[in-house]
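Bug report

Summary: structure tokens for Phosphoadenosine phosphosulfate reductase differ between web form and batch submission.
Environment: batch mode, default settings.
Steps: 1) Submit the sequence below via batch. 2) Compare with the web form result.

Sequence submitted:
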Amino acid sequence: MPVSTSSIKITSSKQLTQAYLASINEYLWTLTPQEILTWAIDHLPNLYQTTAFGLTGLATADMISKISLDRNQPHLVPLIFLDTLYHFQETLDLAHRVKATYDAPLHVFHPVGTPTTEAFENEHGEELWKADEDSYDYLVKVEPSRRAYEQLDVASVITGRRRSQRGDRENIPILEVDGTGLIKLNPLALWDFQQVWTYIRANEVPYNALVDQGYKSIGDRHSTKRPSEAQGERDGRWSGSQKTECGLHKDYFKMRAAFMAAKKKRQEQQHQTLVTA
């Protein structure tokens, strides 16, 4: 198939018509994750890896490192980490360890104007995820990610999503384009948890110390619990709710519109309180 051997690099998501994207995915289904990543490095524009250092993202980073070493080049895909200010300390420690292990460029983005948890809570209140979950997601994930993409001129990102994680991820393709025109690659889409874990152990990849305590999917402290052995790997995330995604892979424009509407409503309520006081 031409897409596998062509020297023509994709320069914009506008090239990826529905038919062309389908043909690429048909080809990528036949490849291993390592081969998919090699293809992506050679064909996708301004490629970065977004990661919260979950097991899938760690396996991906290790594969990229091996591709880079085979080519006698430094780590070929820079990392983007969104520090929500509510990560486990184990996750923050792992971010530094991965950067050092792979000598990988690491770009860290915080919620705008609030680089610390104290500053965030002074600005938005404590436990915002309870008061306004969508606004919380927008502030700690959606807005920082868009800011990262704009500042770094990101055109393509590698994610750690897999079909076996179920929920909204159950039918994801390997290559897709979101509503903003961002190209997304899901190189381990067809792997299950055991395949990822086997790769991690076999290749001595650094991983989160919480995994040894039974955690499989690790996000913010307040929304992550250790699942039982009978539960799926993401059942410990947002336990007790129907939520399966943090907003990072939802419609950006809808998330932004909802946040702006909620912000306007809060401002009007505050104004009314001052007027009647």
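Above is the batch result. After comparison, the two runs are identical; trailing whitespace caused the diff. The longest strand covers residues 47-50. Residues 224 and 237 are 5 Å apart (CA to CA).
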